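Practice problem: predict the structure.
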Amino acid sequence: MLTSLLNLERNNFAKVVKIEGGAGFQKKLESLGLRLGVKIKKLSSSVFGGPVVIRAGRTNIAIGKGIASKIFVEIK
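Answer:
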């Protein structure tokens, strides 16, 4: 099932399959460790607001909701 990172439920695992945005945006995400094919786990809940926190490998990453809405994942 394909969904945005923003809509992914807390504690679910997924794989990044699509990133909407230009080359600069994708390069910025890549510098954080987010690129196509990366397996992630969502750590935060979107109920209380604040950033979206995910784990990619051994790194925790906090990103804004606008950015999270442009990252699409396939739920594992």
